[in-house]
Amino acid sequence: MAKDNLSQRLLFIELLAWWEGAVSNKQLMTQFGVSRQQAYQDLKTYAERHPHNLVRSNAGFAPTASFIPYFISTDVNHYLHWFAGGQLYIDNPATPAGVSELRLPPRTVSAEVIRALVQGIRRQKRVEVDYVSLSNPENDGRIFHPHTFVNTGLRWHVRGYCEKSQGYRDLVLSRFRGAADVLDDSPHGMAGDNAWQTRITLILQPDPRLSAAKQAVLANDYRMEGGQLVLNTRAALANYLLHELQVNTKMLDGTPEAQQLVLVNRDDIKQWLFSG
Predict the structure, then answer these.
(1) CA atoms of 82 and 170, how far apart (whole Å)
(2) Residue 260, Cβ density class (10 Å: 0-12 exposed, 13-18 middle, ≥19 buried)
(3) How far is 22 from 103, CA to CA, in rounded Å?
């Protein structure tokens, strides 16, 4: 991103300070292409306007215990949008006429946990954290080796190696509890995640129970070639992709209009379906 206005640079200062636990001159310089002097001036400007929000630390400027956001929300989607591609999410409340946008409710995500997971991903470290699930709603201590944040369309999770499960798993960000501690180096990185490294092909077609005319509608919707939709994905993400397309691989829905699409090559990829 090239030079931008001051309000975006101040937003960036808050975004990284809150979600990463610190923001530095170098990060401002890299994000906006400004000089070290300008980055220093931006941090000084922010500190003058909001004197109780930041304090100097070894890593730059860290948020104080009394930090109050002025430019950002506490929706982790905004930070992860930047983390994934380096682009700032600018929330525009003025929706253009004739356009409407569906917004999912934000989930509660701990900034402390995100900071630890970010360190774990960037430095390939083990992270100790408590986690809950619907099957185990009580706090459950985990040693987790995170390697990637993943957006499934409905929610964010982090993928990595779980020592309790003795394998690579997906943990939902909103289900972490309490604080998190960054530990020593992880021997289980992304390279060892077989389901992440494996690419598979999903072949979909309209439910054959539909009339030819209805199948043609779906073929046009999905720009199918030869009546099939061919998708290449990481094996670890196949279940999420099928879920987003409302493809049930266990059984056909009683109503073909509800099923719409079916997975043609299930036998070829079944080892990757419904696994952790």
Answers:
(1) 21
(2) buried
(3) 29
For residue 168, the one-letter residue type is: Y
In which element (H, E) is residue 84 found? helix 76-85
Q: What are phi and psi of 46, to 5 degrees?
A: -60, -45
Angle formed by the axes of helices 36-49 and 25-32, to 10°? 110
Residues in the chain: 276
Q: Decide: 272 and 200 in contact? Cβ < 8 Å.
A: yes
Please write the tens of the pLDDT for every residue from 107-161: 889 999 999 999 999 999 999 999 998 888 888 899 999 999 999 888 899 999 9
Distance in angstroms (rounded) separating the CA atoms of residues 149 and 121: 9
Nearest one of 107, 193, 217 to 152, comparing CA atoms: 107
The DSSP secondary-structure symbol of 276 reads -
DSSP letter, residue 265: T
Q: Is the distance from CB of 214 to CB of 249 less than 8 angstroms?
A: no
